[in-house]
Every structure is written in structure tokens, then in C-alpha cells.
Design brief:
single chain, alpha+beta, Alpha-Beta Plaits, Ubiquitin-like (UB roll)
């Protein structure tokens, strides 16, 4: 099984994650094309830097020619500008103090340049007097782009995780949340590029270390808040965290949301055969440790596979609706959309309804947190007037991926076991379909050869 390990000894942010992926082999051109596909007036600048003597990749987002700043730096500059404007408009009698203030500006920048740059930054990123973007607008931008459909789904999930955290903190609904820092153009670039890059790496399992969240306070759209900020803290529920080193924000809300959606578990460095490693650089330099995120990719070893539980017990939501007046074409579309938006499974059963009408029982299996969103989709895409919901327990077999090399290319097989005994195995349909299409061979031939190679132990 191909696994990736995120070592968050200096926290994680969106740009650090992109840098680590590029350093580990993700095509810089792929990310640059992704930004263009969003059509939001942004571009990437990718460079080599050093943090604590270690060479790393730094990814910066530019919006309308302005470089993105860490949010507390932006907030400090924005407050500084408003204070300066207020003093300039209402306190002309304090000329000497104002002259000294201007001198402090000019010490590092040409006259007026910092003032203009920060105002431009506020305009670019939806801060100041604007309210940012809401989730509906963000979904629309992502859905209307030309990126991979699976990556679209992942990106939207990351934004929905952010939205759910913000909604709970502010006591509102997710669709009414206006994203401030995380709704800015730079965060959209970070999140969508993170989804596209992660998809290109073809990782079977993302594992994350305990996260160093930093400390102190951070200035954001809602004022000065303790680190970790409320949204970050909510996103890191059940994750192992600690505070070490500089008293600044090390885990951003965007970084926390990426971890929440991608990582399946938190652990120390896993047993693996290392293939490659990459380092993504943060903006600041620290004396205590290199400000880096390390991404290590490799194949899990037998020792790692043996640590998997025999079975797993969890709970899921079951959503049901009876339909007797819906076009089959519309039903098929609705089922496809439900799967794309995160349903674990969707199926329909013919039923006989009242007044002897033939109908369909639509059933959706999903994670508990996805139930409200998927119920809304059922109402939007079908003619039902009600959706039944219930929570059920399920027991699943331990699963792992095994790759075999057919004459046309590699095919993964999903192998399910209980207490070390293999119960089921099957070739991954999407791998076989892609090979059959590319090499113009029957799909059944590809699947049969993959099964035969697996049974013969040729991996």
C-alpha cells in the first residue's frame, strides 16, 4: 500500500503543504495549470529556499501582482493603515508624531509604498470592508473549473470542513458563513492545488504526526485570539497536538482542514519502504527549529500491515426516500451526484407504493457529518417531500491495497481480511478500465490477468 506521512513538527499551512508536495515530485506545472483553471486572477511563484540549513520548496501565491502574507502580518498592517488614516484625518495638530510615523514607514519602504501595498492586499483578499466569499460561490468556482472531478470533490470537502467549523463557532449555518481569511483567493489556491496534487500522488493512505500548533496569540478578522484559533481547534478535534518553540500560529485553519480531510489516522513515523521525501517551507525563519513540513512517501511494509485491526466498528447514517414520479434519467444523475459529493454508497430498489404505483426506494449510506449536505441534495435533485434518517452500526473487514504488474501496466487489488485470513480480493475497476481503454484490450482480460498474477504471488 502506498502511504504518505506528514511530519508536522513546525505545524502545517496550505503553502507549506504545496511546497512539500512539489519537493516530493508533484509537477509544478500541474499546480500552475490548476491555478489558471480557477480563473480568479492568481498565480504561483515556486522557489528554492533554506530553512535551518535544509533546502526546501517555497510556494507563494500572488493575487493581482501582490504576494500573500501570513494572516497576522496582514491584519497588523491593515490595522496600522487604518490607525494612520484616522490620525491623518482627525489629528493634524499632532504633526510631529505624524512625521515620525511617516519616517518609520520610509525606513523600510519607499514613501507610501507599504501603505499602498497593504491596501491593495486587503482588496485582493476580501478583507477590510468586504465580507469574503460564501460556500455557494466557492463551490461554483471549483465546480466550473476544468480540474479532475475527484480533486474537485476533495477541495470542496476541505472548504466544507472549514465552513462547518466556522458555523459552529459563530452559531450559524454553513451556507451563511462568509469566509474571511480562508475565503480569500490565496486560500482557494492552496486548497484546490492541495487536492489536485494529492490526487496526482495516488496515495492509498495519508498518515499525520502529532501537530505542533505553536502558541501565543494571532490577529485575524475577528480580533486577537489565542493559538490555536477557534476554527483550527475545532478542525483538530481528536487529533494529537502540542505546543513547542516559537509563540506564533503554526497550524493555520487551511492546514488543519487539509489534514482533517486527507489524513485517516495520526501516528508516529510508520513502517515503510521510503520512496521519496519532500520539504515545504513556511514564510518565517525560526531559531528553535526549521520552519518546514516534511512529506515522506513509500510502500507500507508487512509489519505495518499486520498492525491493522481484524475488523473495524463505526456508525454511519442511512438516508431513504420513496420516489414514484421521477424520471429514470434524473434518478441516475441524482445518484451520481450523491456519490461525487461524498456518499459511501447509493442504491435503489423497486418497490410497490400506495395506489399500486411502482416506485423506487432510494438509499444513501454516508458519514454522520455528511448527512445534512446529502439530504439537501436529495431534496434538490428528486421529487421527494421527505427523507428518513437513521444511524446504524457497521462492521468492516481490514483492507489493504496490493499492486500487480500486468503486461499493460500496474493494477491495484483490494484485499480484505479478518484476523490475518484473507476473505475477499478484487482488482480495482478504475485501474482495469483505464488500461483496457488505453491499450484497446477487453476489460475482462485485464481483470483476469490481474487476479491470476495475485493468486500466483507475482506482485
Amino acid at each position: 500500500m502506498r502511504i504518505a506521512y506528514l511530519d508536522c513538527f513546525s505545524g502545517i499551512s496550505g503553502d507549506m503543504f504545496l511546497g512539500a508536495m512539489v519537493d516530493a515530485g508533484v509537477s509544478a506545472k500541474l499546480l500552475e495549470e490548476t491555478v489558471v483553471a480557477l480563473k480568479i486572477g492568481a498565480r504561483l511563484e515556486i522557489s528554492r529556499v533554506q530553512r535551518g540549513g535544509i533546502s526546501a520548496t517555497k510556494v507563494d501565491v500572488y493575487v493581482n501582482g501582490e504576494k500573500d502574507l501570513p494572516r497576522e502580518v496582514f491584519q497588523e498592517q491593515n490595522e496600522h493603515i487604518h490607525d494612520h488614516d484616522h490620525q491623518h484625518d482627525h489629528n493634524h495638530q499632532h504633526g510631529h508624531a505624524e512625521s515620525s510615523h511617516a519616517h518609520a514607514h520610509n525606513h523600510e519602504h519607499p514613501q507610501g509604498q507599504q501603505h499602498a501595498d497593504a491596501h491593495q492586499h486587503a482588496d485582493n483578499h476580501g478583507h477590510g470592508h468586504t465580507h469574503g466569499r460564501d460556500l455557494t460561490e466557492i463551490r461554483s468556482i471549483i465546480q466550473n473549473s476544468s480540474i479532475n472531478p475527484t480533486a474537485k470533490t476533495t477541495a470542496i470537502k476541505i472548504f466544507e470542513a472549514l465552513g462547518a467549523a466556522e458555523a459552529e463557532i459563530h452559531g450559524t449555518s454553513i451556507d451563511k458563513v462568509h469566509f474571511h481569511e480562508v475565503g480569500a483567493v490565496d486560500a482557494m489556491v492552496d486548497i484546490v492545488c492541495a487536492a489536485v496534487g494529492a490526487e496526482s500522488l495516488a496515495i492509498d493512505e495519508w498518515i499525520c504526526s502529532p501537530l505542533n500548533v505553536g502558541g501565543g496569540t494571532v490577529k485575524c478578522a475577528h480580533g486577537t485570539l489565542p493559538v490555536p484559533a477557534p476554527a483550527t481547534l475545532k478542525l483538530l478535534s481528536n487529533a494529537p497536538v502540542y505546543s513547542s518553540g516559537p509563540q506564533v500560529e503554526l497550524v493555520t485553519p487551511t492546514g488543519a482542514a487539509i489534514v482533517k480531510v486527507l489524513a485517516t489516522r495520526f501516528a508516529s513515523f510508520p513502517a515503510m519502504k521510503i520512496e521519496k521525501a519532500g520539504y515545504g517551507a513556511g514564510t518565517r525563519e525560526f531559531l528553535q527549529h526549521p520552519n518546514l513540513l516534511r512529506l515522506t512517501i513509500g510502500e507500507s511494509t508487512t509489519a505495518a500491515a499486520n498492525t491493522a485491526p481484524a475488523t473495524s466498528n463505526d456508525s454511519i447514517m442511512v438516508l431513504e426516500a420513496n420516489l414514484d414520479d421521477l424520471s429514470p434519467q434524473v434518478l441516475a444523475y441524482a445518484m451520481e451526484r450523491l456519490l461525487t459529493e461524498g456518499a459511501l454508497d447509493v442504491f435503489s430498489i423497486p418497490v410497490q407504493m400506495k395506489k399500486n404505483r411502482p416506485g423506487i426506494l432510494l438509499t444513501v449510506l454516508c458519514r454522520n457529518e455528511d448527512a445534512p449536505k446529502l439530504a439537501d441534495i436529495i431534496f434538490a435533485e428528486t421529487t421527494t417531500l421527505g427523507v428518513r434518517e437513521r444511524e446504524e452500526k457497521r462492521r468492516t473487514l481490514a483492507r489493504e491495497w496490493v499492486a500487480v504488474a500486468t503486461r499493460w501496466g500496474n493494477v491495484r487489488l483490494k484485499v480484505a481480511s479478518m484476523n490475518g485470513a484473507i476473505k475477499n480480493y478484487a482488482p480495482e475497476y478504475e485501474d482495469c478500465r483505464r488500461i483496457a481503454s488505453e491499450h484497446h484490450v477487453p476489460l475482462k482480460n485485464v481483470m483476469q490477468e490481474a487476479l491470476q498474477l495475485y493468486l500466483n504471488g507475482k506482485r
